[in-house]
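FORM 7B: Structural annotation worksheet

SECTION A. Query
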Amino acid sequence: QVQLVESGGGLVQAGGSLRLSCAASGRTFSIYRMGWFRQAPGKEREFVAVINWSGGRTVYADSVKGRFTVSGDNAKNLVYLQMSSLSPEDTAVYYCAADDVPRVTGTAYATSYDYWGQGTQVTVSS
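SECTION B. Predicted structure
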């Protein structure tokens, strides 16, 4: 089992920045990748970014490319999501997720992840 806890959410004005953190514990040696997803009210959960736990390869959703940066600290079992140039459309609950399967495809699908944090609210005011 892997446990995940997000932190760093809050209220920010449009154009501002926030950094989210996700702390992993438990069987962290089994993690292949860590993903960030978000869910706005009335909308489905959507992929934001993913980072391979070893090697650090990253992939981003088109909607956040160039504004968000995902990074990880394997030694501390931490993953970060640095968000800049935020807009009201980025308002959502943000979740980190862990995938313990060495898959090649499907890393942007929520169903590929077995472990989820409780989420942290990000609200961007206009």
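SECTION C. Observations
The chain is about 0% helix and 50% strand. The longest strand covers residues 18-26.

SECTION D. Sign-off
Analyst initials: ____
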